[in-house]
Amino acid sequence: xxxxxxxxxxxxxxxxxxxxxxxxxxxxxxxxKHSFTPSVSMQNVTSPRSENRCCAKCDxxxxxxWRGITCARCGQRFCKKCFGRLRAEEKNRRVCESxxxxxxxxxxxxDKQARTRVNPLAIAAKSGEVLHASVVTFKGSMNxxxxxxxxxxxxxxxxxxxxxxxxxxxxxxxxxxxxVKMSGERLTFTIRHAQRQYTVTVGDEQTQIRWMAVLDLxxxxxxxxxxxx
Length: 229
Hints:
The chain is α+β, with helices and mostly antiparallel strands and 229 residues long.
């Protein structure tokens, strides 16, 4: 069952802090998930020497008494020399050198991804490939009238700004799949997205016609690699 939680911040700083905190949790969860992924599928591990009688790396044959050290991650057996630095750990924590290196690589890549996260709202109101923009009166889920500067770019997303000189958007809405239609009120139209509806009022008829044309184009477009925040 899909669930949607809508959060409302009192200012841009608080909103950014919430976004960073949520992203940190997601990144940590993904990193942990990958770190426990076996480097070699257990179904694909077969001993070419039959019944794991030899080291999986150097082919040194084990004695009748000593059967080598088993990697807790990939399940292969190694001699003491080939197993690596974690051979003295507890049995369920003994990981061979190959699996250990893979774990470190996944961890480093996960850290880099977290550091290089791009905020899709960090774009100035007048920058980018703008299809249409203007000042509008806007009503959202709280049914409170707000003055905003709306911008639709060639990525077919609607960006909301406090004013046209802002360096960062307050919110972004992917338009593909949205329902756009005229309202019964003069110079007003609505944008419906999932369970939410937004009412927009503009200053004149020409602006309304222009907005309806751009929004209809964007609502029927195909969106690639965008996230609704």
